[in-house]
Amino acid sequence: MSNREPANLGDILERVLDRGVVIAGDIRVNLLDIELLTIKLRLLIASVDTARELGIDWWERDPFLSGRDRELVEENRRLRRRLSAVEGRAVEGHPVEGRGVEGREEVGG
Q1: How high is the pLDDT of residue 99?
Q2: Terminal CA-to-CA distance of the chain, rounded, Å?
Q3: What is the reported pLDDT for 96?
Q4: What gap in Å lies between CA 109 and CA 94, rounded to an integer?
Q5: 63, 72 contact by CB (below 8 A)
Q6: Residue 54 contacts by C-beta under 8 Å, 6 or more apart in sequence?
Q7: Could you tell me if 83 and 93 are in contact, meaning their C-beta atoms sit under 8 angstroms apart?
Q8: CA separation (Å) from 2 to 6, 7, 60?
Q9: DSSP secondary-structure letter at 15?
Q10: How far apart are CA 104 and CA 108, in angstroms?
């Protein structure tokens, strides 16, 4: 007989998040020995602190999770407008001036 008390859901969740759990599996769909589809599943369940200890912190650099997606969308709009303007001048036969990333004239050319 064990002297251990039954663990409640909170204790189990705390242990899982503290240590982490990895679930891995592959799903393959074959038809007449021809592989049609392979899905590789890799799932890590851990706390943020445990993930960081393991070197996993992709959510901090992901623009859509860190809030930088709005900046990227706006930068994309600005670049598309600049490209359209440059293409418009080239089509009209006007010389196209080189511009740097910051919008300053480039030297040389």
Answers
A1: 52
A2: 85
A3: 54
A4: 16
A5: yes
A6: 20, 46
A7: no
A8: 10, 13, 44
A9: H
A10: 13
Q: Per the structure block, which two tokens stand in for 39?
A: 């899905």
Q: Can you give the pLDDT at residue 5?
A: 66
With tokens 């943020």, the residue in question is: 48
Structure tokens at 13: 């969740």
Closest-CA residue to 99 (of 81, 70, 69): 81
Structure tokens belonging to residue 67: 């809030």
Q: Is the dihedral of CA 49, 51, 55, 58 positive or negative?
A: negative
User: Do you know the residue count of the chain?
Assistant: 109
Could you read off the pLDDT tens digit of each residue along the chain, which spans 109 residues? 455 666 788 888 888 888 788 888 999 999 998 889 999 988 888 888 888 888 888 877 777 777 777 788 888 999 999 999 888 877 776 665 555 444 444 444 4
